[in-house]
Amino acid sequence: GNSVTQMEGPVTLSEEAFLTINCTYTATGYPSLFWYVQYPGEGLQLLLKATKADDKGSNKGFEATYRKETTSFHLEKGSVQVSDSAVYFCALITNQAGTALIFGKGTTLSVSS
Amino acid sequence: DGGITQSPKYLFRKEGQNVTLSCEQNLNHDAMYWYRQDPGQGLRLIYYSQIVNDFQKGDIAEGYSVSREKKESFPLTVTSAQKNPTAFYLCASSMSNPNQPQHFGDGTRLSIL
After folding, report:
1. Which of A23, A30, A32, A44 best probes binding to B when mutated, by most B CB atoms within 10 angstroms?
2. What is the mean pLDDT of chain B?
3. Which residues pair with B88 in a beta bridge?
4. Which of B23, B41, B43 to mutate to test the interface with A (most CBs of A within 10 A)?
5. How far is CA A100 from the centre of its chain?
6. Inter-chain contact A103–B90, Cβ cutoff 8 Å?
7. Chain A: nearest CA to B23, how far in angstroms?
């Protein structure tokens, strides 16, 4: 079946450090891939997306590239800030009508000054 | 502003009681979803609806019920049959076209008295 696997956290970094959160997926067909971010006590916000192989999604300094050959969609940021502290979820949706997002378990990022 | 409104933000349930969580959207989205979030388990799909008067069970539907009488509204009832209801509940909506991202509300935290 379809699934998403994320690196387990928590990830603890100092301000201005480089961030990578790994995400790999298993899916039939050609899914679309997403990263969502959740700040404490809030819902999820769409951070970025990619809908086909080799697409790069980017937003707020975060980037992720859809790699079909390695079935991966790793999240990266060159210089993290304290305000980036949150839980990050990788997710996929297949191109079949009537399906819902499938989420990874989330990775907690904590950035200290 | 368009968005998804969940209410209440906090809800308490007594033993043997049914409670209903509200979710309203004004994004004109066809599809709506309910997820349950527990620490370390990511998001699990409870129910989803692609169109008015129709809905499907997700991965953990037991002990829950929904209705979709209006496009804008998708209330979730946590019944007394759900023995472990304490969690954070998230509602989402999306366009029904394939590969569309979901937009989330701010969630309802349900606790047992």
Report:
1. A44
2. 92
3. B37, B109
4. B43
5. 17
6. no
7. 13
The DSSP annotation for B9-43 comes to SEEEE-TT--EEEEEEE-S--SEEEEEEEETTTEE
For chain A, helix, strand, coil in percent to 5 are 5, 50, 45
Look up residue B38 and give its two tokens. 């527990």
Measure the CA–CA gap between B28 and B43, rounded to whole angstroms.
24
Closest CA to A59 of A38, A72, A76, A43: A76
| Range list of β-strands (E), A2-98 | 3-6, 11-14, 19-21, 23-26, 32-38, 44-50, 56-59, 62-65, 75-77, 86-93
For residue range B11-46, what is the model confidence (pLDDT) as tens digits? Answer: 998 888 999 999 999 999 999 999 999 987 789 999
Lookup: tokens for B27: 């994004």
**pLDDT for B61-78, tens place per residue?**
999 999 999 999 999 999
Question: Quick one: tokens of A29?
Answer: 């067909």
CB atoms A104 and B33 under 8 Å: no
Residue of B nearest to A51 (CA): B99
Pairwise CB contact (< 8 Å): A89 & B99: no
Say whether residue A49 is in contact with chain B using an 8 A CB cutoff: yes
User: How far apart are the CA of B15 and the nearest CA of chain A, in angstroms?
Assistant: 25
Q: Which amino acid is it at B29?
A: H
Length of chain A: 113
